[in-house]
Amino acid sequence: MAAMGAAFLAGGINSIAGGGTLITFPALLGLGLSPIPANATSTVAIWPGSLGSIWGFRRELALVPRRMLLLAVPAVLGGLAGAWLLQRTPPQIFAHLVPFLILFATLLFTLQAPVQRRLRARAADPALDHPPSRTAVVPRWRSGLWILTATVAQFAVGIYGGYFGAGMSIMLLTLLAFLGMEDILKMNAMTSFLSLCTNGVASALFAAAHMVVWSFVAAMMVAALVGGYAAAGVARKIGRVIVRRVVIAVGFTIAALLFVKMF
After folding, report:
1. Comparing C-alpha atoms, which of 258, 262, 261 is closest to residue 22?
2. Could you tell me the end-to-end alpha-carbon distance of the chain, in angstroms, rounded to an integer?
3. pLDDT over threshold 90, residue 81
4. Which of these, 245, 263, 254, lies nearest to 102 by C-alpha position?
5. Spatial separation of the C-alpha atoms in residues 203 and 47, rounded to whole Å
């Protein structure tokens, strides 16, 4: 029941503000799972939520240039590499890394709102409503340097996503902005698409390597989907700002408790 409750909250949080992994992963730790199975189980249980996000952004995703969709290749390869690294990380080392990973993910989540506000402001800037110049984004997509930079950066983000994953969405938004995307809705669509690629292949490897505690997965999947659906009403009542603050407080608190336990 505790795992279902955490997944229900995570599904709602993901649909409102993102960051649901910061709820499910510590909850599974509290239920007695060791860090690596908890991470793998959380990834598999929450992963289907990306399908709903992609469906919601299907119109925006259809407008994304085809070349950008090729980032799925390094996203998949990075996810495989990250999941492979997790599989081969000794449990005691990963246990010591967990407080740092949660702290890092919480810091990324904290930065998400100001980054998105800045991106929305830039997208709404009338000065940007002009025909592309020779130095604009579209010509850069044709350059070898742009392709190399995009591939390497996306591969690195994919490794992090496959290894731990919490906070990957803000890394993707930042990367897409750096690569020249300006429409926040298209960026959210691409973030959902690339997250699906990375977490999907990582989930497949975790399952094949018997790293997933399946007794939790089915119930958590259902709870996450129900939580995502129910979150709309909750969001109207309390607002996403309060939800974000709660997630940030939980993340920093859990990181602090784990640091105290470690030392």
Report:
1. 258
2. 31
3. yes
4. 254
5. 8
Q: Where are the alpha helices (DSSP H) in the chain?
A: 2-16, 21-30, 35-46, 49-56, 58-62, 66-69, 72-88, 91-124, 137-140, 144-163, 168-178, 184-208, 214-238, 240-262
pLDDT (tens digit, 9 = 90+) per residue, 210-256? 999 998 998 888 887 777 666 555 555 655 667 667 767 877 887 88
CB-based contacts of 53, cutoff 8 Å, min separation 6:
188, 192, 195
Q: What is the DSSP letter of 181?
A: -
Q: Which pTM value belongs to this model?
A: 0.77
Q: Which residue has the tokens 């110049």?
A: 133
φ and ψ of 98, to 5 deg? -55, -50
